[in-house]
Design a protein that fits this description.
The radius of gyration is 17 Å and the shape is globular. With 180 residues, it is mainly α.
């Protein structure tokens, strides 16, 4: 079933929408949540909460990309849950990746539409490997080791490419007068 059909089910308030969302995007939502929480029960709970929040958000929202919409909800719920569960002992890799990104992007509680548009435009200008690394590290919360395995690069090469991409992003945002 395609995204528009699933969204139509949400608008019709048909519970089949949740089953179809789970079938199509359940694995990716679980991966995002597991990368952040590192706990299957917590990740499963966040994925279930993702479906509830999606149900409550559509309608009125009509997302352009259902995958991005549900993954964003899963990620935000997982990060919130991580903060609650582990105020003292955080997921070290997620903390490090967020600190890396904070060096070039201010991290508000909720991303502004302006910043989201700038990030999308910036990523479209990047090569495929750099895009995959950036999204994998800072959106999906993948480890450098996992990204190295997926791309066939060394861990050092992944670190270097991420560093250079962050530097290009900082310059890109400054050129567009976005406060960095």
């Amino acid at each position: 079933m395609n995204d528009q059909d699933i969204i139509a089910l949400y608008f019709a308030r048909n519970e089949q929408a949740i089953r179809e969302t789970d079938t199509k995007y359940g694995k990716v939502c679980m991966q995002v949540s597991m990368n952040i929480l590192e706990s299957r029960p917590d990740a499963e709970e966040c994925v279930n909460d993702t479906y509830l929040k999606t149900w409550n958000s559509i309608p009125p929202t009509k997302p352009a990309s259902l995958c991005a919409f549900v993954c964003r909800i899963a990620r935000n719920l997982s990060v919130s849950r991580l903060r609650k569960l582990t105020a003292a002992r955080r997921n070290r890799d997620l903390t490090v990746s967020l600190e890396e990104l904070e060096a070039c992007i201010p991290m508000p509680d909720d991303t502004s539409p302006e910043l989201a548009e700038l990030l999308t435009a910036f990523l479209r200008e990047q090569g495929e490997t750099d895009r995959v690394l950036f999204v994998g590290r800072y959106w999906l919360a993948c480890t450098v080791e996992e990204l190295a395995r997926r791309t066939g690069l060394t861990q050092k090469a992944v670190h270097m490419r991420l560093f250079k991409t962050r530097e290009r992003l900082r310059a890109y945002l400054e050129e567009r007068r976005y406060r960095v």
